[in-house]
Amino acid sequence: MAKRLVEYYPMIKDKSSDNVWENVSRKLMKRLSNVKSPVKSKGPPVKVQRRNEDADDSSDWDSSASTVILERSPASTSTPKRLTDNNDEPSTGSGDLLDSEKSQARHYRTLQDMYKSKKPNKAAVSHLLDLEFQSRRQFIVSDTLKEQDRPGKILDAYPCFRELDHIMDELRRIINPDNPDYIANIKDRWETFYGKVQFYGVMRKFMKPPKTLDGVEHATAVFSALPQLFQSPAMAPKKTRTPSKVFFHILTSCESPDSFLLTRSHPIVLLGQENCLLSIGPTTLCSFPKIKFHEAILYLMGCYYVFHLTYPKCIATLLSVIQTEVLGDGLHERDITPSYKRAIADWKAFID
To answer: Region labeled Disordered — which residues (predicted)?
Structure first.
């Protein structure tokens, strides 16, 4: 049991010992030694009314309503009849797939139980998201979810994606799961891109030389110029007027975020008086400090990947450039449009 607990919850390992499960085993033994056997009554036996067999069969119960029960591995449990193969020969591929689906379903239930508490352990949640990744992505990219309904359905199933850390960690799992430093790497690439694109904007006369601007004002100027530097042929919607308003907006003192977001359907960052809000359509996911506003593009890209959303046409070229040059993720052949080819060629000519 101790080995199984440590295998399922690696955060309780005792790294100071050769046997990482020894400390857990010792605590379990101590707990069991304090359990007393029930004392039998010395009086005459009490006659219990006999129940029918159906009632006996339905009397099996567990405490899963109040605690998380670790299920045994498939090898040590009996297989339900509906999952049993008709042949006596052991199954190979289908059996492994079945075990994988059962395990990932179990991880999902555990994840749901963890989010019933006010402050779930982030490390434990991240570990379960690693284990349950395959089935989760199958659910998210399936045709059963319409794009306009997808964010709400995903957040109902995975409330963890209201947190910025889990959004960015999921981006890593999708693009480069074997690189634990992937997020740090793309932030470094973004800083390099962000620095060069300012000079590119000045050269193309879409930006003025930054002199007295603070960090937020500087980022606002860069974000406003980006869709013009990497232009898409499609025009911005009339309600936004400019393409940059599709992915960020500066709230005025008398403007309500909720009323503004009602008219939006894509990931967007709202710059408020005190902090920034990351939202998808009318749903606000989380807030982050204004000092990180210049990284907002990365957070938006995380939302597009995690929630499997289509780029808005008026900024599709810009986001495609960010995808290849910053995230290091290739484009599908059908997404390599003439506008992208032209924009990336001009950019490469400038930085080379």
So the answer is: 31-102
Tokens of 130: 């690693």
Spell out where 196-337 has E strands: 248-250, 267-271, 275-280, 283-289
- CA–CA separation, 116 and 168 (whole Å): 23
Q: What is the pLDDT of residues 134-166, one digit of tens each?
A: 889 988 988 788 888 899 999 998 999 999 999
Percent of residues in the chain assigned helix, strand, coil, to nearest 5: 55, 5, 40
Q: Tell me, what DSSP letter sits at residue 238? A: T
Cα dihedral value 332, 336, 337, 340, nearest 10: 130
DSSP 8-state secondary structure symbol assigned to residue 81: G
The structure tokens listed for 146 are 């319409």
Strand partners, 286: 278
Note whether 277 and 142 are within 8 A (CB).
no
Cα separation, 299 vs 346, in Å, equals 26
Cβ-proximal residues to 272 (8 Å cutoff; 6+ apart), any chain: 251, 257
- In the chain, where do the E strands start and end? 248-250, 267-271, 275-280, 283-289
> Which tens digit of pLDDT belongs to each residue from 104-128?
778 888 888 888 888 888 999 999 8
